[in-house]
Amino acid sequence: MDIQIDISNVIIDTPRLLLRSWRETDLNDFYEYASIDGVGEMAGWKHHESIEESKNILQTFISDKNIFALELKNNRKVIGSQGLHYSWANNEQKLRNLKTKEIGYVLSKAYWGQGLMPEAVNAVIKYCFTALDLDAVTAGHFIENNQSKRVIEKNGFTYFSQGEYFAKRLNKTFVENKYILYR
User: Fold this and answer.
1) What does the pLDDT read at residue 45?
2) Cα–Cα distance between 162 and 58 in angstroms, integer?
3) Please, which contacts does 10-15 make with residues 24 or more away whose CB atoms are closer than 8 Å?
4) How far apart are CA 82 and CA 115, in angstroms?
5) What confidence score (pLDDT) does residue 40 get?
6) CA 86 to the chain's CA centroid
7) Is the pTM of this model over 0.85?
8) CATH number of this structure's domain 12-182
9) DSSP assignment of 146-167, as one string?
10) In sequence order, what are the residues at sequence separation of 6 or more whose Cβ sits closer than 8 angstroms to the Cβ of residue 19?
11) What is the band of 42 on the pLDDT scale with cuts at 50, 70, 90?
């Protein structure tokens, strides 16, 4: 069962990150990581080709109120995003009565391999189960995306099934592994 959320006034504090709503002043940081080839493609979208493209997407992030900016505490730089989206579990007969959200995330290539995304995902899972009172959180990764797979495993998700995901912005279908974590 999908629920509406609004993270516009939420701040989640982790040892190295602040997860907060997006601001228009984040545009340059957003474009910096979203324009790197290979970053967005890991999540199903083409890297940004102009700052105008980033600006339009940033406006969507701000208005949708369901995507956190990941701000690195030591330099106040936004280095990624983490969203709470409609979950594939809503389409599964035996799961559709559960209150669920799907966690999706992207991290600047310059910060890969430092444990930042597992830290952020863990904090958002806690937020989902306490503040949002969700029954479960889901996640998924394209089978080629081993970094995402590790984030999911480190946060205790259980494999559920394999499926296909059509990435509209890439006009490509990916094989996707789906996972669930119950409260």
Assistant:
1) 75
2) 31
3) 10/68, 10/127, 10/131, 12/68, 12/123, 12/124, 12/127, 13/123, 14/119, 14/120, 14/122, 14/123, 15/119
4) 15
5) 72
6) 12
7) yes
8) 3.40.630.30
9) HHHHHHHHHTT-EEEEEEEEEE
10) 10, 11, 12, 13, 68, 69, 70, 71, 82, 120, 123, 124
11) confident
> Which residue matches tokens 């504090």?
13
CA distance 47 to 51: 11
Tell me the sheet residues that pair with 164: 175
Query: What pLDDT was estimated at residue 41?
Result: 72
Rounded CA gap, 61 and 71, in Å? 15
Only one residue has tokens 């959320």, namely 5
The lowest-confidence range among 23-27, 52-56, 71-75, 164-168 is 164-168
- The mean per-residue pLDDT over the stretch 48-65 comes to 93
**Which residues touch 181 (CB under 8 Å, ≥6 apart)?**
125, 136, 137, 138, 139, 155, 156, 157, 158
Amino acid at residue number 128:
C
Give tens-digit pLDDT for 2-35.
999 999 999 999 999 999 999 999 999 999 999 9
Q: What are the structural domain ranges in the chain?
A: 12-182
Could you tell me if 26 and 54 are in contact, meaning their C-beta atoms sit under 8 angstroms apart?
no
